[in-house]
Amino acid sequence: MYSFLGKCGVLLWGLLLGHTAWAADERPECGRPLTLALHVHGLLYSAELDAGIDKDFAEALAQRSGCNIQVSVLPRARIWQLIESGALDFSMSGIASEERNTYAAFAWYFSNKYYLLVNKSSNVQKLSDFEDQPGLKLGAIRSFRYSSTANRMVDKLVQAGRVSYASGLEPLYQVLALGRIQGMVIEPFDVGDVEARRIKDTTHTIEFNDPPVPHGLIISKKSIPSAEIAKWMAVVQSLRNDGTVLRIFEKYFPPALAREMVVF
């Protein structure tokens, strides 16, 4: 019996060593420090708290890959420029578009729906109400894209000169409270911000009737070779498979909503 168990133990240890060696071979190349930029966006990242979903995910990504990932915080528009030029390796929570697919790859780790947050005084009950009233203005952040219906609405209002841009959510909340804009597009990460800024009582949300939009790790095709991109995608998938991503989201959302966003 002892001999049999001993042989099984040796076999199991050999399998574990083989798996470890295989995993090491499949890890991304870490020959240089890699760069990753976060952007300030509600529960995704708060500069004030230096905390958020994307920061937690970036830390998990560095630990799982074994790479030195240098993290910074930049405006979203600047991030896309640097990803395209190859001056930045990664960013977080990106959504794809035809243009972005030419210079970036995406490793999905969550998906969510979009909502129109409107001031109750505007008497908007459905999306068309907002579009049909020329006096209503929408607030937006430059370079942000949303779901298909939201993108169509934003693009239409841009053409009509009815979009006011800001550098982030905080300025948009301020001008919404002041009545300089009457609506803005938000995501589940922004709900906490809405409540914290005490504009919940004066606003309500209207859902865009689109499927959830995948968000992922943004990988620069110019700075990361295609073979390495595949490895980074595998790292992200491993973080999804073992529940790491779900545990991160459960820190910030009720369990049912967290699961809805990361299991897709």
Can you offer a commentary on this structure?
- The protein has 264 residues and is of the alpha/beta class.
- The chain is built from ten helices and ten strands.
- The chain has helices at residues 2-26, 53-65, 76-85, 127-132, 148-159, 169-178, 191-196, 226-241, 244-250, 255-262; strands at residues 34-38, 69-73, 90-94, 104-112, 115-119, 138-141, 163-166, 183-186, 203-207, 213-220.
- It has a five-stranded mixed sheet. The chain has a five-stranded mixed sheet with strand order 7-6-8-5-9.
- α5 links the parallel β6 and β7.
- α9 crosses α10 (255-262).
- It is globular and about 60 Å long.
- The model is unreliable at 1-22 (pLDDT under 50).
Secondary structure elements and pairings:
Layout: H1 2-26, E1 34-38, H2 53-65, E2 69-73, H3 76-85, E3 90-94, E4 104-112, E5 115-119, H4 127-132, E6 138-141, H5 148-159, E7 163-166, H6 169-178, E8 183-186, H7 191-196, E9 203-207, E10 213-220, H8 226-241, H9 244-250, H10 255-262
Parallel strand pairs: 1-2, 1-3, 6-7, 6-8
Antiparallel strand pairs: 3-10, 4-10, 5-8, 5-9
What's the overall average pLDDT, rounded?
Answer: 90
Which runs of at least 5 residues are low in confidence (pLDDT < 50)? 1-22
User: Based on helices, strands and strand pairing, what is the structural class?
Assistant: alpha/beta
- Beta-strand portion reads 15-25%
* Tally of separate helices: 10
Shape: globular
Biggest sheet strand order reads 2-1-3-10-4
Distance between the termini: 46 Å
Percent of residues in helices comes to 40-55%
Using only CA atoms, what is the Rg?
Answer: 22 Å
Major sheet size, sense and barrel closure: 5 strands, mixed
Number of beta strands: 10
What is the H/E order? HEHEHEEEHEHEHEHEEHHH
